[in-house]
Known about the structure:
By secondary structure, this protein is an alpha/beta fold. The chain has one domain (14-308): TIM Barrel. Helices cover 45% and strands 12% of the residues. The chain has helices at residues 4-11, 42-56, 74-84, 111-131, 152-168, 195-205, 224-233, 259-271, 294-313, 317-325, 329-341, 345-354, 361-368, 370-377; strands at 16-19, 61-65, 87-92, 135-139, 143-144, 175-179, 189-190, 209-214, 237-242, 282-285. Strands 1-2-3-4-6-8-9-10 form an 8-stranded parallel beta barrel, surrounded by 5 helices. The protein has a two-stranded antiparallel sheet with strand order 5-7. The chain is globular. The protein starts with a helix and ends in a 10-residue tail after the last helix. It binds alpha-D-psicofuranose (PSV) and manganese (II) ion (MN). Manganese (II) ion is lined by residues 139, 179, 214, 241, 286.
Amino acid sequence: MTTFADIGDRLAxxxxxxxxxxxGNSGTRFKVFGTPGTxxxxxxxxxxxxxxxRFTGLAPTxxxxxxxDLVDDFKALARYAEDQGVALGTINSNTFxxxxxxxxxxxxxxPKVRQRAVDHNLAxxxxxxxxxxxxxxxxLADGTNYPGQGDIRARQDWLAEGLATIYAQLSDDQRMVLExxxxxxxxxxxxxxxxxxxxxxVSALGERAFVCLDTGHHAPGTNIEFIVAQLLRLGRLGSFxxxxxxxxxxxxxxxxxxxxxxxxxxxxxxxxxxxxPDADVALMLDQxxxxxxxxxxxxxxxxxVQEMFARxxxxxxxxxxxxxQDGDVLLANEIxxxxxxxxxxxxxxxxxxxxxxxxxxMRAYLAxxxxxxxxxxxxxxxxxxxx
Length: 387
Ligand code: PSV
Ligand code: MN
């Protein structure tokens, strides 16, 4: 039997990367509600992210989105982050918000638009060179709405060309991760709709190109843990964008909609070597807090990841293996469910205290006065959002 005492040291390896945009305002196409205290600047987003790390010890890096987080001096921004106690992480390129990209970016039929999209990604690599970031993450909104609208085959070739040009500019210690999504904003076809397409492209590029798996980007009912197992087996799982959903790409807090699915995914992450000091899978969040306060939303999210990782690490893999060898289907399932049903909350509270962290990070944050302070201080200016 594996006990909590057995997994304490391994839990210390957990590092979740938080997205800068989770601290800004977001919403649906119906309404974006502002929240008092929302950051106006990239620095304020970083200060909030660092606060999440201070209270949880779980979120040492922050992903940026360009141009949402564009600043004049990224070296200075990296120093500012360091002063706050965090580091800058993945750089997300953005080729989905400009007029030119209406009919696609890297897959646009117009070579000038394709070049513009390539140039934007090269500019993102320049940013990485200054921030010391390892990963360039590419997600494309590219696709078509109507059969016949585009040459879906030619678009794959343009995509391969563009990615190769971008990949060639990465230094030896930098990586590219290509995120897939089955639909939205395009509704008929999407140019990178699934892990197989992403895998085909990254494999063709070279060893430093990987797939990014956003948990909200699959058809309902998809067995995501199988994809995780397969990509780890192939050595091509670069990163996660964690979030949860009830319907489509809801971007709700990870572990909120289906904690059991998160558990099943994390079991495969551990099983496949995607977790631990030598693993290089970036465990990122990609979420929006449309109606809840953002910092508590992020605290809850990283705690959910920690809780499910603890349960995944508690899985008695030796007993499970024996049950499997014996063909004991019910026992194997029981062992699996035992780990999932283990309530680790008290143990985690003690584990945190032993490491100088608040036993209950959420309550500690709410009692700290930080929220009241930012709500009082951040008056005027333009609150950050998706622009
Ligand atoms: C697209 O839906 C996506 O998942 C990509 O990762 C974008 O960069 C991100 O959402 C913006 O939140
Ligand atoms: Mn994503």
